[in-house]
From TrEMBL:
Residue ranges of every copy of the Aldehyde dehydrogenase domain listed in the record: 14-446
Upper lineage: Bacteria, Pseudomonadati, Pseudomonadota, Gammaproteobacteria, Alteromonadales
GO terms assigned for molecular function: oxidoreductase activity, acting on the aldehyde or oxo group of donors, NAD or NADP as acceptor
Gene3D superfamilies: Aldehyde Dehydrogenase, Chain A, domain 1, Aldehyde Dehydrogenase, Chain A, domain 2
Oxidoreductase listed as a keyword: yes
The protein, known as: Aldehyde dehydrogenase domain-containing protein
Organism, scientific name: Paraglaciecola chathamensis
Length: 523
């Protein structure tokens, strides 16, 4: 099946031969992906002239109601999406994060906008600033919507959520989107896109879709556009350096890979409730979506005297994982998104092996059980736990601080004291999410303040919040998703802050009555 592109208000199928994508479980061809024949510059123009104008004629509340209606519409089709999602390798539980998590983001942004924004077009930023003695000259910061388009380049691991979590704040800001899903799982994104278009809810020009190459689109963006990239640091850095992006100062947001860590506090006794929580988080992060989460724990940092106990407990828990076809109800872990992705993970395990030893799991495809599936056809992989041998200051002996095996893989490091634990955490050079498991408030403070500068989000976990905790890897629309350094240096979500990524902040100066009249007229 050749995937369609949605451009200039019409569905378009390229006549060129495209890249064939295979089903993650069966290995059989599932889609052909090609965008050749699209006029990428014309697509930008169409979004700017049709979509931008149509959306910005609406108020924040009217845009919020569109998102809400779209969420309701998509939710009614969800079973189609779940069925299609099997081709990406996911169990139903994992697909829930992608499909209903994505749709939930539409609802979240709709209600945040309805509850917290005025029913107008401009956002006030802070209070009026007094700039004169007599009070005839004041200042006020405002946000107004940019006049361009949001180009969303997404990763393969969340084909639905990845599209919707970026679409929601863009639409609230009144900025149309052009979505470019990753080729490997574009068939699921395209299915959801078909329903977005069929719903007729978004105005003409507010939504376009490119399945395949982005062509020369980045050569035509301007300072009024936003490019929001999610994917590997390597691709992101290459695109960010595009000469047109640089010379136009096109806004470029980057959510890249991240060597997230979880620190076990020195106070936590083996076999205590907090210890078991730590083990649960590590194993969940290794197996949910077969470890293909940008927030997944890649580095587990544990006190030296607990290392053996942690290894034993993780082994015990991973031993209960059932790998196989997601349609079999006993299966708890599906496959990776495709064979190319698995080959990447296997190559990275090999590289990690230069400084770490595999203590659980195998890379031999014939030596683990696959229920109702075949590891030589589907992209199945057993969870692999590694232990870094040398946690000292020689970084050449710690490849797990640099290499992201984007699959069910985690590396253990042992530490001698709190300072050492923090130094190990910081060697990830900037992460999306980190976890600290402790019930000692002083220790929590030291670890938290030492790790915060290196993380976009920190989970402080112990028994007191565990029953309601959303877990280490779960990204929530209300909280920041992003991180410094290697993680890309940008932020997504975080409530209505994300809407401002698609708006311009301007300082207005003048007479207070004049400013009041302007802001009243724009509500
Ligand atoms: P990737 O290979 O870097 O690709 C990401 C996106 O960039 C895909 O849509 C890809 O399209 C596109 N792309 C590649 N080359 C391009 C070019 N020259 N011009 C325009 N677009 C181009 O990453 P991936 O393999 O899809 O995803 C896995 C990575 O994403 C992991 O490293 C993971 O950590 C990271 N990730 C990060 C986050 C986050 O929020 N920080 C979330 C999810 C995943 P094609 O597929 O068509 O090549």
């Amino acid at each position: 099946m050749k995937l369609k592109n949605y451009a200039l208000g019409e569905w378009f199928t390229s006549s060129n031969t495209g890249k064939v994508v295979n089903h993650a479980i069966t290995g059989l061809p599932i889609a052909e992906v090609e965008s050749n024949g699209l006029d990428f510059s014309e697509m930008l123009h169409y979004s700017r002239t049709q979509g931008n104008r149509a959306l910005q004629a609406l108020t924040f509340h009217q845009r919020a109601k569109l998102l809400k209606s779209l969420g309701v519409y998509l939710l009614e089709q969800k079973e189609l999406f779940y069925t299609c999602s099997i081709g990406t390798g996911t169990t139903r539980k994992d697909a829930w994060i992608d499909i209903e998590g994505g749709i939930g983001t539409l609802f979240s942004y709709a209600s945040q906008a309805l509850n917290s924004l005025t029913d107008g077009h401009i956002l006030l930023d802070g209070k009026q600033e007094a700039l004169s003695k007599q009070g005839s000259f004041v200042g006020q910061h405002i946000y107004s919507s940019i006049t361009g388009v949001a180009v969303h380049i997404n990763a393969y691991n969340f084909p639905v959520w990845g599209m919707l979590e970026k679409l929601a704040p863009s639409i609230i800001a009144g900025v149309p989107v052009i979505v470019k899903p990753a080729t490997q799982t574009a068939f699921l994104t395209e299915l959801v896109a078909q329903h977005i278009v069929a719903s007729g809810i978004l105005p003409k020009g507010a939504f376009q879709l490119i399945c395949g190459s982005l062509g020369n689109m980045l050569e035509h963006t301007t300072y009024q556009d936003v490019v929001s990239f999610t994917g590997s640091a390597q691709t992101g850095q290459m695109l960010k350096a595009n000469h047109n992006i640089v010379s136009e100062s096109t806004r470029f947001m980057m959510e890249a890979d991240s060597l997230n860590c979880a620190i076990l506090g020195e106070d936590v006794a083996a076999d205590s409730a907090d210890f078991n929580l730590y083990i649960r988080e590590i194993c969940n992060e290794m197996t949910t979506k077969a470890g293909q989460k940008c927030t997944a724990i890649r580095r587990a940092i544990v006190p030296q005297d607990k290392l053996e106990a942690v290894i034993d407990a993780i082994k015990l828990r991973l031993g209960k994982v059932v790998i196989g076809h997601p349609e079999n109800p006993s299966v708890t872990m599906g496959a990776l998104a495709g064979l190319e992705q698995r080959a990447d993970v296997l190559a990275n395990i090999e590289r990690l092996s230069e400084s770490a030893e595999v203590v659980y799991g195998t890379t031999d495809l014939d030596s683990f059980n696959v229920l109702d599936g075949d590891a030589n056809r589907g992209a199945f992989l057993a969870p692999v736990l590694m232990v870094n041998q040398d946690s000292g200051s020689d970084l050449s002996k710690q490849t797990a601080h640099d290499i992201e095996a984007f699959g069910p893989v985690c590396t253990l490091f042992s530490y001698s004291n709190t300072e050492h634990a923090l130094a190990l955490a910081a060697r990830g050079k900037g992460s999306l999410a980190g976890s600290i498991v402790t019930s000692n408030y002083d220790l929590a403070q030291q670890l938290c303040l030492g790790a915060a500068a290196h993380h976009g989000r920190l989970l402080l976990l112990n028994e007191s919040c565990s029953s309601e905790s959303t877990g280490h890897g779960m990204v929530l629309p209300q909280l920041i998703h992003g991180g410094p350094g290697r993680a890309g240096g940008s932020e997504e979500l975080g409530g209505l802050r994300a809407v401002k990524h698609y708006m311009q902040r301007t300082a207005l100066q003048g007479n207070p009555e004049m400013l009041a009249a302007i802001l009243t007229n724009t509500k």
